[in-house]
Every structure is written in structure tokens, then in C-alpha cells.
């Protein structure tokens, strides 16, 4: 490719990354982006007096942070895959750079605000470091989602979609909750949010298909993720909602084990969603196989 064509692709890829990173954060930004109240804040303030923060930094919002970061990366990956440029590797990493620029800017701004307002002491240091580690892990997860979804391989793209299905459901739930107001979601919307990850996983697996046989591994991983990730989200939200620094580590470990056992068990509620995803995947794969055989005739 001539240099001007390469430069055009690079610029477009960076723009894709920037435009994908911003909608990823949008469910939080539309709320006014005021930092949530902090247990370790240095002064007594009202919620509306909290400073502007580009991320909802709080131990109660960790799964929300995962959703905001992973959806931004996934959106950039999907855009690159639909584009299918000649210099795919270069374009993918440029798009990743655009997403990382948005997320790194938001991270630096938010943690600067948090650091300025927290009370001093060891607890504040542990809290700050824990949140920072969680946000960095979420950014890495978003980058992995981008690389998988942007890949040429259908199997890798379907794997990436399956891994971000639950965070995407949380992202849509944040949008719906912020637009309708806390506690105002209707029953049909709640039902849609419950089944959305299963529909997404089922559609991705149907598109992926079962041929060659090694794609069965993608089916196994995606269905397992649909079972395990919601349980992890529930466990994290519950445990961190108990004001983690004040609790005994052994008690926390026991609590996590009990919650995971309950949510992963037959009464945890994940079974129907996995069965729905499997039914959609099998039906879609069967239709695709039937269409291929008709084209061969």
C-alpha cells in the first residue's frame, strides 16, 4: 500500500478507537459524572457536592467499571472486523491505541480527583490501590475483547462476543437504569436484560457454527462463561458491598465461597439462560448447515 493509504488507515483506526471508547463510558457520563459518595472521603459532603469524575470509582461499582471498559474495546473490535482492512494488524493496534487513549485519560482524571479527596491513612491507600488494580484489569479485559472480536477467525470473534456478553448486558442495564431512574425499570425491560446475554451468546455460536470440530471448544467456553461470569459479578457486588477493609480476610473468603456455591448451583438461576443460548445456537447452526447444503445442490 502507498504511504498515504497507510496513513489514512491509521488515522481512521485511531478515530474508530476514540469513538468506541467514548460510548463505552457514556452510561456513566450521561448521569452527570459526579464521583459516588466515598466511605473514606476526607470531608462530609452531599452527593451533589462530589467532584466531577470520568469514572464511577467506588467499591460498589466495580462490575460497572468492567462493563464500561470492555464494551468500549468490543465496539472498536467489531468496527475493525466489519471494515476488514488490508493491514489488519496495524489497524487493530491503532484502534486499540485510540480506545486506550480515552480510557487512560478517564482513569488519570478520576483517580486524581479521588486521591485529592480521600482522607489520609493506610485504609485509603489500600482502597485507592485496589480500585486502580480493578480498573487496570478492566482495561486489559477490554483490550482482549478488541483483539478477539477484530480477528479474521470466526471462532475467535465468537469467543470474544461470548466473553463480553454479560458485561454488555450490564452496560445496557446501566443505560436503562440511568434513563428510567433507579427502581423504575419495567418488568419487560428487566426480562430483556436478564435474557440479553444468552441471546447474544446463542447468536454468536450459531454464526460460528460447529465445523471444523475444534469450534466446539468455543461453544464450551462461551456457555461456561455465561454460567460463571454472572455468579462472579453477583459475588463481587455482594462482598465489596460489605465494606471490605473492615472485615476479616478469613470471613471474606468464606463469604465468597458460599456465594459462589449458591450462584453456581442448580438454584442459582444460570441454568435457563445457558439452555436458551444453547437452543439458539443449535437452531441457528442447523439452519446454516441446511442453507449450505442447498447451495451445493
TrEMBL record:
Ranges annotated as spanning the membrane: 62-83, 90-114, 126-148, 155-172, 192-210, 217-240, 270-291
Keyword Transmembrane recorded: yes
Domain of life of the native organism: Bacteria
Protein keywords: Membrane, Transmembrane, Transmembrane helix
Protein name, per record: Uncharacterized protein
Origin species: Pseudarthrobacter sulfonivorans
Lineage per the UniProt record: Bacteria, Bacillati, Actinomycetota, Actinomycetes, Micrococcales
Amino acid at each position: 500500500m502507498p504511504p498515504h493509504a497507510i496513513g489514512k488507515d491509521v488515522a481512521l483506526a485511531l478515530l474508530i478507537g476514540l469513538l468506541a471508547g467514548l460510548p463505552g463510558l457514556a452510561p456513566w457520563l450521561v448521569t452527570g459524572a459526579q464521583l459516588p459518595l466515598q466511605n473514606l472521603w476526607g470531608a462530609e459532603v452531599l452527593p451533589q457536592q462530589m467532584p466531577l469524575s470520568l469514572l464511577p470509582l467506588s467499591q460498589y461499582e466495580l462490575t460497572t467499571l468492567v462493563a464500561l471498559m470492555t464494551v468500549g474495546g468490543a465496539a472498536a473490535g467489531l468496527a475493525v472486523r466489519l471494515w476488514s482492512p488490508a493491514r489488519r494488524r496495524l489497524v487493530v493496534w491503532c484502534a486499540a491505541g485510540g480506545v486506550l487513549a480515552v480510557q487512560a485519560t478517564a482513569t488519570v482524571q478520576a483517580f486524581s480527583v479521588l486521591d485529592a479527596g480521600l482522607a489520609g491513612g493506610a485504609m485509603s491507600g489500600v482502597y485507592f490501590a485496589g480500585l486502580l488494580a480493578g480498573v487496570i484489569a478492566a482495561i486489559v479485559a477490554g483490550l482482549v475483547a478488541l483483539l478477539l472480536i477484530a480477528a479474521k477467525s470466526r471462532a475467535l470473534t465468537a469467543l470474544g462476543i461470548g466473553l463480553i456478553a454479560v458485561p454488555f448486558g450490564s452496560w445496557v442495564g446501566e443505560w436503562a437504569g440511568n434513563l428510567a431512574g433507579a427502581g423504575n425499570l419495567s418488568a419487560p425491560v428487566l426480562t430483556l436484560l436478564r435474557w440479553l446475554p444468552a441471546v447474544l451468546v446463542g447468536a454468536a455460536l450459531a454464526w460460528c457454527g460447529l465445523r471444523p470440530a475444534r469450534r466446539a471448544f468455543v461453544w464450551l467456553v462461551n456457555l461456561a462463561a455465561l454460567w460463571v461470569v454472572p455468579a462472579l459479578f453477583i459475588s463481587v457486588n455482594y462482598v465489596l458491598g460489605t465494606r471490605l477493609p473492615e472485615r476479616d480476610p478469613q470471613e471474606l473468603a468464606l463469604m465468597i465461597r458460599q456465594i459462589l456455591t449458591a450462584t453456581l448451583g442448580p438454584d442459582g438461576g444460570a441454568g435457563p439462560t445457558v439452555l436458551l443460548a444453547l437452543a439458539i445456537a443449535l437452531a441457528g447452526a442447523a439452519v446454516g448447515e441446511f442453507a449450505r447444503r442447498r447451495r451445493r445442490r
